[in-house]
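fyi for ur records
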Amino acid sequence: MVEMNKMDKMDKTDKTDKTDKTDKTDKTDKADRNGLDRNGLTRRDFLKATSTAAIAGALFMSDPRDVFGQVTEKKTRVVLVRDKDVLDSTGNVDANVLERMLDNAVTALLDEPDPANAWKRIVKPEDVVGIKTNQWGHLPTPKALENAIEKRVIGAGVSEKNISIRDQGVLDDEIFVKSTALINVRPMRTHHWSGVGSLIKNYIMFSRTPWGYHDDSCADLAKIWALPVCAGKTRLNILVVLTPLFHGIGPHHFNPEYTWLYGGLLVGVDPVAVDSTGVRILVAKRKEYFGEDRPLNPPPKSIYFADTRHHLGTADPAKIDLVKIGWEEGILI
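which gave:
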């Protein structure tokens, strides 16, 4: 059972991908130039980690215990829900199917059979709710999903005037500034600076200086989650994996050849656990497509360090309770 008070303790703060427009060039600190990061993890090890899907959960080298120590029984739940019919024959989202997927994921996450009651545990009528979306032109958060989330938030008793949905400009949005609850939702994709566009990275627009987080392949993005504007406010994280981008070259790169119909949503309280699971899927797809291990470059350090350095959540696959619902073909995980 996932308790709402546990949600608040687990959440810190972060931002989005539209910073591609303001991104400066990535730097590498002295330790990284010597092939060793501040926690003693070599770049070679990390590259190996992102290619060793079967053993290391696609993110960590060898057995997860080699990185995290003794695995405990306590796990954080992540729900993967898939439906092969979520896109119609023209590639457009079927809003009814997507809404049903969201409901199935949230009820499974909270062990609450009724979607309306589940959402009443996520938000309260007195909450001011910011729905942090992502509007990267090639792969935005589906409008149908934004609408489904807003519908459920209103159904839980939150006034429509106390809800805002946006990507950029959150620091100039009165609802986000005074928010008491955040819902974080964005598509999964490869990213030129950080390895992956992730839930952790989706909060980067909560900073006036997003380029300040680009050093060392954006390794310390989790720092953003501790900023007062969003610290402790995130109630739900939704990583959209309907048609993920699993390969790219250079800034803003997009080629539909490197997307595929996965038809999924990854949902959880812990953004690090959800992102870690998403990386495993991307890495598995890259191996399937290229016929060999093809490490993400740069490696998604921000996810690893969100756990080990910033303690935002868990990235260790051995500590993630992955619940799978729906379409199983080509699940890759």
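Residues 1-41, 46-72 have pLDDT under 50 and may be disordered. thats all i got for now
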